[in-house]
Known about the structure:
Elements: H1 2-9, H2 13-20, H3 27-32, H4 38-50, E1 54-59, H5 67-86, E2 93-97, H6 108-124, E3 129-131, H7 139-152, E4 157-161, H8 167-174, E5 180-184, H9 199-215, E6 219-223, H10 227-239, E7 248-252, H11 257-265, E8 270-276, H12 281-290, H13 293-303
Parallel strand pairs: 1-2, 1-8, 2-3, 3-4, 4-5, 5-6, 6-7, 7-8
Helix pairs in contact: 1-12, 5-6, 6-7, 8-9, 9-10
The structure holds dihydroflavine-adenine dinucleotide.
Amino acid sequence: MLRQALLVASRSDGVRRVLETAPFSSDMVRRFIAGETIEDAARVTGELTGEGLLVTLDVLGEDTHGKGRAEENTQHYIELLERIGAAGLGTRAEVSVKLSAMGQTFDEDLALNNAYRICDAARSAGTTVTLDMEEHTTVDSTLRIVHQLRRDFPDVGVVIQAYLRRAEEHCAELAYEGSRVRLCKGAYAAPSAVAFTDKEEVDKSFVRCMKVLMAGRGYPMLATHDPRLIEIAGALAVLHDRDADSFEYQMLYGIRPQEQRRLAAQGAQVRVYVAYGREWYPYFMRRLAERPANLRFFMRSLAGR
Ligand code: FDA
């Protein structure tokens, strides 16, 4: 119930306006978001890569409704990629892109074109792009765009959300040579007609998807903080004789940082998803919805400011 309420609030402009007027006043916000500027992102990327972790950078912003705004978001990614290239970080830092920030909501061709330009900039920087998966209503459009981009950029990554009933089928279609697939549980509200709503069912689906991806010929990116699923991932890697560089674990900045370092110290590839920018509200609300106990800490920190 609380999860649903937080996810509904994540789309509320009213609540957003109130909370975003005081950016970064809360430790809770700072826990999950690297900062507001490209300099903040560069600093955190330097720290994480210095510790042997990989990074994927997300410029916050989503659900964009105007062409001008989609262009600004695209330019921001291109600038970020130029910085990654100039710093020689291409092998350690990539970017994650939300197509809704590129115009997908109102013009799929525009989103494709903007994503194409970002992929081009990523290639020049010696790195890759992964397309996030958002609301369940956008899955078909996102997969169409991924297939078109992969004609010219075969290394474009795609996200599959295990809570969707079609997830296993999509994993089977995507488990081909060179295909980079990030598997996560899924962070948005979705009706039971299309998604598993019971946590156990979602976890079981994650395991089925992971089995398909780890047995396949692609490059699985296992995005979870769940200790049980991380253990199963390790067992599947042994079962399928996968080298440490043939898959990676992924976690969000601010969540289980010690586990990120523990896995990396064991020789695993671990990529941290680092979000930054001024439009932190919907991303932050999804982090609260994943663990409603976070809400208590957040309310306390707001009361104390
Ligand atoms: P689960 O929620 O069961 O958490 C397992 C444990 O992790 C918890 O017991 C707790 O210890 C810790 N934890 C998890 N979330 C926490 C939080 N918010 N605060 C504190 N502790 C927390 N989703 C999506 O729909 N589209 C996408 O494109 C992506 N992309 C993405 C990239 C990467 C790299 C990651 C790691 C995740 C995503 N997600 C996502 C989010 C994903 O769908 C999911 O909501 C979160 O990862 C939480 O699910 P877990 O698998 O961690 O399990």
